[in-house]
């Protein structure tokens, strides 16, 4: 892919400035955004991603423009699914709602750093070893199978062993002190539960990165597209958190849709690995020419179509209508409403 240098550098500069402004707004004015505010921000970020997609079509052509759209939609869908985990983390640790934006913003920054590292490593490995596509493909198929079976309830109710150990080792207060990580209790400096929240979010982001990076490398081998698609998928995620809220429990078929998408990309990766095969114990080290390369427009159609079907089916499902909010989230919302009054 040949893109003007000014376009690549300019893209990262503009995105960096937007993220910095977003962070400063959160730090200077911590609050719980209204549905209108959250909706406007989400619309802005989605519009920005679509505008960037148009620029990719113009400067890089339809093939790479399609790869960006497919990658962004996939990463955005995975991010939306991960929002429910963030909701549970916030409710579990009783993070005051006006400080949840800051926690989410820190989580997004951690996610960007971790994904940047994974993307850089992935690009180098793919450039040197084509057989890694077999590993990525098998991993995504396993992840798809696991996600289709796993309800996630056990993970939500079990504290990470590392977090439990940190609680025992570090002196920690029982209550939050605004958005501070350290506070003073009885004349002694101690950590607040905010530290545990940040670490939990960071560990969660690490797991998400391990799942999502192989998925998007199955759609494009361009590190630039991979990284920009991840940035756009994470931008506006904190506003989407407040916009969707309890509606996440109504998307009952979202996990199934994502498992289908991950399985599809896993198969795509295995077929690509066969097509560029260099392993001596497979087909004598020669490329397997009959293995098809799935076009980008087919991938995009499968991904978008699967998500649309899942959302529509969820909204029409009796199971979704009867779905109840997680008890911790419901208590968190009631507490927030009483404080507002």
Description of the molecule:
A two-stranded antiparallel ribbon has the order 1-2. Helix 3 (about 60-90) packs across helix 9 (about 225-235) and helix 11 packs antiparallel against helix 12 (about 295-315). A hairpin with a 2-residue loop joins strand 1 and strand 2 (about 190). With about 350 residues, the chain is mostly helical. Helices cover about 75% and strands about 0% of the residues. The protein is built from 14 helices and two strands. The model has no long low-confidence stretch (mean pLDDT about 80).
The count of helical stretches stands at 14
Oligomer: single chain
- Separation of termini? 56 Å
Number of strands: 2
Beta-strand percentage range: under 5%
Mean residue pLDDT: 79
Structural class: mainly alpha
Global morphology: globular
Largest sheet: 2 strands, antiparallel
Helicity, as a percent range: over 70%
| Order of H and E elements | HHHHHHHEEHHHHHHH
Major sheet: arrangement of strands: 1-2
Low-confidence runs of at least 5 consecutive residues:
none
The Cα radius of gyration reads 21 Å
């Amino acid at each position: 892919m040949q893109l003007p240098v000014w376009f690549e550098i300019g893209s990262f500069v503009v995105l960096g400035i937007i993220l910095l402004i977003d962070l400063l707004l959160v730090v200077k004015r911590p609050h719980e955004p209204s549905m209108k505010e959250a909706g406007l921000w989400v619309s802005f970020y989605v519009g920005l991603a679509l505008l960037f997609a148009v620029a990719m079509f113009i400067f890089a052509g339809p093939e790479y423009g399609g790869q960006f759209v497919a990658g962004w939609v996939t990463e955005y869908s995975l991010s939306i699914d991960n929002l429910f985990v963030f909701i549970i983390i916030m409710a579990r640790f009783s993070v005051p709602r006006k400080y949840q934006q800051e926690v989410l913003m820190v989580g997004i920054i951690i996610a960007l750093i971790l994904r940047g590292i994974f993307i850089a490593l992935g690009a180098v490995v793919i450039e040197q070893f084509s057989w890694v596509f077999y590993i990525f493909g098998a991993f995504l198929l396993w992840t798809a199978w696991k996600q289709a079976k796993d309800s996630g309830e056990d993970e939500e109710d079990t504290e990470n062993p590392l977090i439990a150990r940190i609680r025992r080792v570090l002196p920690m207060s029982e209550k939050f002190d605004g958005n501070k990580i350290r506070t003073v209790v009885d004349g002694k400096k101690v950590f607040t539960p905010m530290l545990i929240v940040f670490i939990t979010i960071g560990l969660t982001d690490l797991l998400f990165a391990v799942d999502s990076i192989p998925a998007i490398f199955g759609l494009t081998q361009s590190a630039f597209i991979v990284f920009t698609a991840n940035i756009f998928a994470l931008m506006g995620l904190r506003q989407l958190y407040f916009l969707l809220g309890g509606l996440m429990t109504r998307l009952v078929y979202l996990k199934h849709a994502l498992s289908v998408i991950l399985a599809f990309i896993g198969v795509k990766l295995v077929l690509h690995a066969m097509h560029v095969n260099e392993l001596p114990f497979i087909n004598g080290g020669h490329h397997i020419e009959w293995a098809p390369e799935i076009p980008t427009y087919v991938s995009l159609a499968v991904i978008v179509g699967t998500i649309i079907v899942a959302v529509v089916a969820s909204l029409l499902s009796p199971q979704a209508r009867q779905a109840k909010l997680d008890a911790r989230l419901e208590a968190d919302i009631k507490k927030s409403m009483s404080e507002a009054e």
